[in-house]
Design the sequence.
């Protein structure tokens, strides 16, 4: 399946992307904060826990379920990404200024770029980022916006252009923390990337 | 079949004597200021530049490529590690890409801090080539039909050139061998004045090669022309990421043809046959081997080479059209030469 996208859409996407990137590069141009003192593994995990839970990773990487107060993260599936068993129908067509949509579990997003499914960040060795990437590959992934640092481009809405401004120590801490969470075997479906006409 | 172009939405002990002059500011704003040409108006290349052509060229959608390099005066390349040449600071490489017209000329320079990358986009009249944006140009010159060439971002440059210790993909022990493979896909004749490993050694520009390579004519050990060409193609097109020593070494998936040590089977066999790919094509009902002997239809390597869906294509960058000639070669190699019952361990021994 692929989505066909008109030139107008792509111009909008290009403008949004440029604005997004320019904003992130302006952040990048600021002086980085002093590197923290050498952290122990336990301190890295603790800092990674803090960062992951302060930066909103779970907003997209943990499937949500309906609770008494509305959608809430399903903690049994913490950071395991879009569930392989959840098959979705095609997304609704864009309408007017509304160019994107999301599925109810908040792990699938559609927009001018196509359809993206959030990744499994758990340490499952076969299907999880923290189980199949090296620390170096994880850092490169966020720095370059490419899978394993050198593969295809990561799709929206993953805000890697912002997260790339984190220090090496912070990114390594995030990775260290992700390696301590519960591994969940879940092979996230491939994204669908829109065809540019 | 109509070809589709997909894009992603968001982004994309060496001697130091005689260091060459470098542009005052990196990168220079136009190609004419990089020193490649002695006469810009006639496009006469500076005679001091060294012309070369790798025997297993990297596929870039059929682009005609012209390549030059420059070493600072009095310096040489240290080839003591034949799989990871060490270039002196000041080394520069240029590569011109032409489709219906010149599209871009890339420039790589080795500095004391590392490698720098830039590319220059030619105008329609080919009278000027200006520095391309850091983010590249997604839709450049028409390749075929509606498919356009993409000028890479600096990030893309790093992705391909910094994935292995051999930073320059087409300027290496195997690629410059005097014993060129006539069956290499898209093989180019040695250009007039072009160097080989042998001439570089004779001129003292490459030094320290191990004794077994001293004749400047290394060759892939293979009993058939198909295997030789297949292993060479994989080396030239895939080993900048798929090596034992680079950043992706954890994959334990190497398509490099190494010269540092003897082996029973080349890595392209040893790390593919019997190894289940982490990537599972969406239409497959189960994971598959990287290379399944005698079965190209169930070999993930052949599947991904034959795809230009950005989710599954290999290589992931730098190409928008399948290399049909190479896919045919690799499929033939898998079908005929990876699972023969008469093939014995060590047949490819070197």
Sequence:
């Amino acid at each position: 399946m692929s989505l066909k996208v008109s030139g107008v859409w792509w111009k909008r996407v290009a403008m949004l992307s440029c604005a997004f990137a320019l904003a992130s590069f302006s952040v990048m141009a600021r002086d980085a904060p002093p590197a923290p003192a050498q952290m122990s593994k336990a301190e890295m995990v603790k800092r990674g826990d803090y960062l992951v839970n302060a930066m909103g990773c779970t907003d997209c990487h943990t499937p949500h379920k309906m609770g008494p107060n509305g959608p809430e993260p399903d903690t049994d599936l913490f950071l395991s990404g879009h569930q392989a068993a959840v098959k979705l129908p095609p997304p609704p067509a864009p309408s007017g200024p509304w160019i994107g949509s999301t599925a109810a579990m908040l792990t699938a997003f559609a927009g001018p770029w196509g359809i993206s499914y959030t990744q499994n960040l758990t340490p499952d060795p076969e299907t999880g980022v923290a189980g199949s990437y090296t620390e170096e590959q994880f850092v490169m992934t966020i720095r370059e916006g490419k899978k394993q640092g050198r593969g295809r481009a990561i799709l929206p809405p993953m805000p890697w252009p912002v997260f790339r401004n984190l220090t090496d120590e912070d990114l390594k801490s995030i990775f260290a923390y992700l390696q301590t969470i519960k591994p969940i075997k879940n092979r996230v479906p491939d994204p669908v990337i829109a065809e540019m006409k | 079949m109509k070809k589709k172009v997909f894009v992603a939405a968001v982004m994309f002990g060496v001697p130091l004597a005689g260091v060459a002059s470098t542009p005052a500011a990196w990168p220079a704003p136009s190609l004419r200021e990089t020193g490649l040409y002695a006469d810009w108006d006639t496009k006469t290349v500076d005679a001091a530049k060294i012309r070369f052509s790798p025997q297993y060229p990297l596929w870039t959608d059929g682009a005609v490529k012209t390549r030059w390099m420059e070493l600072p005066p009095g310096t040489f390349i240290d080839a003591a590690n034949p799989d990871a040449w060490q270039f002196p600071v000041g080394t520069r490489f240029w590569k011109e890409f032409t489709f219906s017209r010149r599209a871009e000329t890339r420039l790589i320079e080795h500095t004391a801090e590392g490698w720098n990358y830039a590319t220059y986009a030619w105008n329609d009249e080919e009278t000027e080539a200006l520095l391309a944006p850091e983010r590249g140009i997604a839709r450049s010159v028409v390749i075929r039909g509606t498919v356009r060439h993409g000028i890479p971002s600096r990030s893309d440059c790093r992705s391909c050139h910094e994935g292995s210790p051999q930073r320059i993909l087409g300027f290496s022990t195997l690629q410059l061998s005097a014993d060129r493979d006539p069956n290499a896909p898209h093989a180019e004749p040695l250009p007039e004045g072009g160097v080989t490993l042998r001439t570089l050694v004779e001129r003292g520009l490459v030094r320290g090669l191990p004794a077994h390579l001293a004749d400047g004519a290394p060759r892939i050990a293979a009993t058939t022309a198909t295997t030789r060409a297949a292993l060479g193609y994989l080396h030239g097109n895939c080993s900048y990421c798929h090596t034992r020593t680079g950043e992706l070494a954890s994959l334990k998936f190497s398509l490099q043809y190494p010269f540092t040590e003897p082996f029973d089977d080349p890595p392209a066999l040893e790390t593919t046959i019997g190894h289940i790919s982490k990537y599972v094509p969406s239409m497959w009902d189960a994971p598959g081997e990287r290379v399944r002997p005698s079965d190209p239809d169930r070999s993930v390597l052949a599947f991904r080479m034959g795809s230009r869906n950005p989710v599954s294509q290999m290589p992931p960058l730098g190409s928008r059209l399948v290399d049909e000639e190479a896919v045919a070669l690799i499929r033939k190699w898998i079908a005929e030469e990876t699972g023969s019952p008469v093939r014995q361990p060590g047949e490819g021994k070197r």
Summary: Helices of chain B lie at 154-161, 197-202, 225-238, 267-270, 300-305, 324-337. Confidence is low (pLDDT under 50) at residues 1-23, 341-348 of chain B. Residues 226-337 of chain B form one domain. The longest helix of chain B spans residues 225-238.
